[in-house]
Amino acid sequence: MEIIHQHQALNTICISRPGRIQELTNTMSTEETQPPAIPVADKVPAKVTHVSHEGWMREGLAIVVVGASGDLAKKKTYPSLLSLFAGSLLPPDVIIYGYARSDMADEDLREKLRPYMIGKRYDDAVVEDFLGRCRYQSGSGSYGDVDGWKTLDARLVACEKNEVEEGKKRSNRLFYFAIPPNVFAETGAAIKSACMAPGGFSRMIVEKPFGRDLESCKDILSSLGQHFDETNLFRIDHYLGKEMVQNLNVMRFGNIWLENIMNRNYVQCVMLTFKEPFGTDGRGGYFDQYGVIRDVIQNHLLQVMCLLCMECPGKLDGPEAGEKIRDEKVRVLEAISPVTIDEVFLGQYEGYTDDKTITNKDSNCPTFAILRCFINNPRWAGVPIIFKAGKALNERKAEMRIQFKDAPAAETLFGHKVPRNEIVMLLQPGESIYMKSNIKTPGFSSAPMQSELEVKYDNRYFNRGSKECNPDAYSRLILDVLRGRSASFVRSDELLRAWEIFTPVLHQIEKDNIKPHSYKMGSRGPKGADEWSTSKSGYVRNEEYVYDNDGIAHKC
């Protein structure tokens, strides 16, 4: 694997000429002064990338990870920033600060981050170079501690002044909210009053959950909306950063054969599936407040469905494409009626409430759900859209599946049952696209049989001999924010309409205490679930077809 050394520079509070560091630290109070400067090594020319020519790459950048001491920051945010840094996808003198309530020094933060980076993918020297840029600022017991944010602002301003003197026109700031929604408001208010970029952009990445129903979503939107408008807010759903989801626009609108058959005349049903082979694993206290419909279907799968089924926007790439794509996603949601209880099948795995973090031992929280809805527009009217999600199932899988209608008169023509065509886009594990097509049975027989036309991304594009790697979803999405590209982020009207679709049935499940069907861990789900899904979708399963995934055969 190619190891990329972006810059061989050791860093203090900011990257600067050696004599300049002491001058900067002398302007701060004793509490704000950083450790003595480490000499800055000569810089190796950065690798030229697809973003090197963009204006923000020639400007200053400070990234602030809010909630830096938490699991999300350690496991996802910082490793994704390392990926961008190692790939020369951040400005050379980027400043990275962690902000949290914990009282710790810069080196304490680095020690917490190091195990999630060393020995993973990059050379140790690259990791240490990155960690040398990571510093820490604590708030006094609160994310809304204005004084803490003022202290951080002073440190950032000192570095940004230095960058201006070195010829950069302005400096930008990116704030990543790796914190719970209940502290969004106080954090946003403190940043707005004390830590906005004085000249460049100030952008916020906000993590889900975005509420648990329509009213709580409105509260969250209001708490941040009073401080920032939509151009500053990027609500992240990491499923929108997955390779197969990013590929949807090209697949749909870059292939004449596919776009012409993606409609009610040819499609029998659309199925979106998410399966995990493990349960709550100590997260039951959180999960029990949401359930699998809120946790997976209402956001991840619904967002993917919108991209799969939307009409073609006027633009599909570039900064101006974002709003056009999001407009079309909203139109899909507006064409879906609220889900009713007769369109829902619920399940809960045996032993779910044994999780010690779940206090309600009689919980009816679903860990498995299948839902059906319809998109009431000319393209999709009458086509069942099936969402299926579950925990503690028999495999790990997320996929989009389109089954087409029977080929006209095929059974009469061939004297045999002819399986239906399908397009399957596997999101995880191992991204791939395959089309289930019919061919003649090899040998003397002339009977049709089902095979596949297939592209496996790991083998075709990201194998060990390739210089390219498949970026993780968070790295891709953080880069989109820096580039000002909004297509892969959820707009407020999308969120509100999504909750309008699901809130009535979620409230009914809770109010009427509707009990889910029980199922064993490691199974396909509750008894009767497959039959219910088939009756609602019209899906016809070809029991003779076996999908060979790198030598491992699966019936699909």
Summed up:
By secondary structure, the protein is α/β, with parallel strands linked by helices.
Any descriptors?
556 residues; alpha/beta; disordered N terminus; six-stranded parallel sheet; nine-stranded mixed sheet
Q: Explain this structure to me?
A:
- The protein is an alpha/beta fold.
- Helices cover 33% and strands 19% of the residues.
- It contains 18 helices and 17 strands.
- It has helices spanning 18-25, 71-86, 106-113, 124-132, 146-165, 184-194, 214-225, 243-246, 248-253, 256-259, 284-287, 291-309, 321-334, 410-414, 457-460, 473-483, 492-511, 529-537; strands at 60-66, 95-100, 134-138, 171-177, 202-207, 233-236, 267-275, 344-349, 368-373, 385-390, 397-404, 422-428, 432-440, 448-456, 517-519, 547-549, 552-554.
- The longest helix has 20 residues, at 146-165.
- The model is unreliable at 1-13 and 15-44 (pLDDT under 50).
Overall geometry = globular
Distance between the termini: 33 Å
Radius of gyration: 26 Å
What portion of residues is helical? 25-40%
- pLDDT average, as an integer? 87
Number of helices in the DSSP assignment: 18
Structural class: alpha/beta
Quaternary structure of the protein? single chain
Low-confidence stretches: 1-13, 15-44
Based on DSSP secondary structure assignment, what is the total number of beta strands?
Answer: 17
Q: What profile does the largest beta sheet have?
A: 9 strands, mixed
For the largest beta sheet, what order do the strands appear in spatially? 14-13-12-11-7-10-9-8-15
Strand content: 15-25%
